[in-house]
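Hey, I was hoping to borrow your eyes for a little while. A protein chain has come my way and I'm curious about its shape. Take your time with it, there's no hurry, and the full record follows here:
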Amino acid sequence: MAAVALDQYLASVLKSNSTDKNEIKLEAGNPDFDLFTIYLENHNTGIHRYQMDVSTILYIAKGTVTIKSGEKIIQMKSGNVLLLTEGCKYEILSQKPDTVLIKLKFKRGFLYRKYFKDFSCKGEREVKVIEQIVDSLENEHVLWLKNNQITRASQVMQHIIGGYLNNDLFTKALIQAELTTMLIISIRTQRMATPTSLDKTKFEKKTLDNYIDLHFADVSLSDAAKYFGFNPNYFSNMVKAKTGKSFVDHVDDRRMQEARELLAQPDISLREIIGRVGYSSKSFFYKKFNQYYHITPAAMRAELFRQANINLK
């Protein structure tokens, strides 16, 4: 079954479904297939909240989905894969009308730790990567693989689903091999050095600094939290706990650094500087500047001009 035909077939299953169940079971083409069972996420109204009793893989064949798992808000796109451990709780917050969300629910007893440990790991790098993946799954209960629809990993995933629906020879053996291939390609594509490279929902201070560098003029806590995959309250507390400073303090620090650089340029007015660094109130900017540098902006500008031998008189 071709990828495009598969998408169309699954969309037609959703469209023709008249039940009010959250999940639509797809029967395997081979009745003896016992590795996993595939379900489609229905588009019925109501709360779509789950607690997994088996290990599960979510795959977005088409469209976009917003998922909440613990404190994480995960914006999944077409081609994305999400590994969920047994016991993981998650909720489908929203999905577009044309979204096709596929779930591979493994049989009881399937454990990611054992599955990944069975990979042929010959070198230290491979062993380290597998350990990081397993640790991430056991600690976070989810692992987000950000493939897109045109990657080889996504194409293999489509083939896995097609193989499940058909009744060909050696289906289980082939799907097991393809599942391993899909995961290895995903890991390679993401160029994983640490779990954070694979799972962007995990936080790094360097990444936060880079994000603020790009958005300090109009950044908000809610936007930053959404970018990193957390809800705002959790994100705010996490930043404070891991860096010793609040998110607002990080933004103010960056704005003050930018303000100082702009003050050294004689062709930019103070009013323009205030707007450029993200403040709307002159008095509030002055207050922040004095707290940070213990000097007024005008005095700082005069000193910077003096150091650069700039005389405007």
About this structure: The chain has two domains: 3-195, 205-307. Residues 135 and 195 are 9 Å apart (CA to CA).
